[in-house]
């Protein structure tokens, strides 16, 4: 019997990797998407399908989801986690970095939602979980472009939530504060101990996903207790 599957983008490291491990451990079939093939080698088994794609490549994304639907059945959820964080002063930052972040963080997110929504609307069930940031709720120094992408994630997510609510489809926004990821691996010592671990974010994602379909936890913002900003 085909029981459906969950798509996880940016599944090769940090939040995506921890989320993939958790969903598999909980018995879900998963489609793992990443640009880095070597980082997905640890995932194997009957519950797992993998596709090495860039989330901005819409034809490749559609093909990967179609193949997973053929194998597992209908898509039950997507965790739009793929993202780029390139910080810099607006006066000196390379505009190519702006484009890279908007392509992945905004266009990639839109691609992910549009790729699964027709099926979810037809099923009258499904969950979209978009990974944003505290930087999508308030501003920080050197976050002009990155923060803009995450403010976009918040507004896009809420707008889509309103549109698909009549179809019994949920949209959840998760907004973490400081996280221990490869993006901030230069942080060491006592300061690093204040960061959230990816497993904590994965647990939060699964908590929202595992609620009854009639309950939509629209947004969760979480940060280390000692994070002041």
Automatic annotation (TrEMBL):
Protein name (database record): Putative short-chain type dehydrogenase/reductase VdlC
PANTHER family given in the database record: DEHYDROGENASE/REDUCTASE SDR FAMILY MEMBER 7B, DEHYDROGENASE_REDUCTASE SDR FAMILY MEMBER 7B
CDD domains: SDR_c
GO cellular component: membrane
Species the sequence originates in: Paenibacillus nuruki
Ketoreductase domain mapped to chain residues: 4-186
Keyword Oxidoreductase part of the UniProt annotation: yes
Chain segments annotated as transmembrane: none
A GO molecular-function descriptor: oxidoreductase activity, acting on the CH-OH group of donors, NAD or NADP as acceptor
Keyword Oxidoreductase found: yes
Xref: InterPro entries: KR_dom, NAD(P)-bd_dom_sf, Sc_DH/Rdtase_CS, SDR_fam
SMART domains: PKS_KR (SM00822)
